[in-house]
Amino acid sequence: MKPGMMLLWPWRRLLRWWAGVVLVLVLTAPPIFGYGADPLTPQGIRQEFALLSARLRQTPNDVTVLNSLGILYARAGQLNDAILLWNRALTINPRYIHLYNNLGSALKAQGRVEEAVRVYQAGLAITPSFWIYYNLGLLEKDRGRYREAAHYFRECLRQNPRFEAAAQRLEDLGYVLASQQAAQGIPYKPPTDLEALSLTMLERMEGEEGGGEGAEPRPAGAPSDTRRPWRAAGGADLPVTMTVETCAAYLEKMAQGAPTRLVALTFDDGPHPSITPRLLDLLQAHGAKGTFFVLGSRAESYPELLERMVREGHEVGNHSWSHKSLVRLGPATARADLQRAAATIEACTNQPCRLVRPPYGHTNAEIRAMIHRSGWAHIMWDADSRDWQLSDANQMLARTLRKTSPGAVLLFHDIHPGVLRVLPVLLPALRQCGYRFVTVSELLRLQGSRS
Ligand SMILES: [Zn+2]
Predict the structure, then answer these.
(1) What is the pLDDT of residues 12-36, one digit of tens each?
(2) Among 98, 413, 414, 416, the one annotated catalytic
(3) In angstroms, rounded to a whole number, what is the distance separating the alpha carbons of residues 288 and 31?
(4) What angle do CA 367, 368, 369 make, to 5 degrees?
(5) Catalytic: 319?
(6) Domains in the chain and their CATH numbers?
(7) Strands (E), 233-306
(8) pLDDT at residue number 15
């Protein structure tokens, strides 16, 4: 875009966006005052919250205070409240750049990726912030768009050549900087060794903890290899390049010689009219059993798929009726929502439905207690494929493998097609490594309670 265009283009869109924000705020009335944090929120956050709330009462339009309060909400896990606050602050001072960065990151954390991109770009239209470029780079990398990610990391370095995290990310993507100055100019080298990609990706991920934002330090003792190969461009249709043998060797390492090897495959958010039947075919072809945490509302639409699940030896669990956060609903409403779903599921399967998986994994002590009181089991997971977020099946596979050891519960979603590309490699690899596929209830029985 030409510099002159910068003055014209974003403003109209931004104005429209602000109008939307104001409307949303009027309709939802942000809960700033007298809104206690979750009881599990650490004491330090609550004290800081009280201080900032007091300051806000004196100066309700102080954008820095609103921004800090939003950060506290986000740290306490109340992303919706953080988003409301930052939106409100933007209506007061739309040039306060940190708001765009924080808002974008919160939206991204909620899986609202396209909205996050729009917010980041609105921020960049105001100030070319290196932080925003960096976060956009992370976002694109996470969804497998490595070429775009590299572009943003380079823009980040153009703004701040000493920002090492961006240089490291660029290097991870296989771009070799000719020198520090190179960041400000053109010279960079695209990746070459795509063959070695898959194994390198796994090795690299071993050093990561949790993934997502934040600095990812180089694993201790790892050489400073600036020629690390990486995929240059990603996309939804890229084939899985990791072989069954590679995966099985990795799983063997993770199993550390354990004699009993059980794994529970779980699939959330379905059933889906086209993906779930193909998934069931795939599981049947590999002789694998799984557990489907279905939504009551979707079960009602596709009862025949639940019947098929049970007929073919799979287990059906409860993933709520509406897929709202149980924590936000509160124990009483959450229980009613879960009971409605359980009744529908049980009507389809003709079996009791004992397992509950909270949507988004949002849970707390109260919800856990309510689930146990209701005679259900509270089920989370060990390995998250992130198939709802990533587009590159290699990454989904790598994420899953690095958390898979005997007794693990694996998480997929049968409303996204990624699972259909991952399982044809993962299932034979698990079997080759001596794993037996069990339902979650079988796993609980065989391992003792872990809910
Ligand atoms: Zn879900």
Answers:
(1) 565 555 555 544 443 333 333 333 4
(2) 413
(3) 47
(4) 90
(5) no
(6) 3-189 (1.25.40.10), 244-447 (3.20.20.370)
(7) 262-268, 290-294
(8) 54
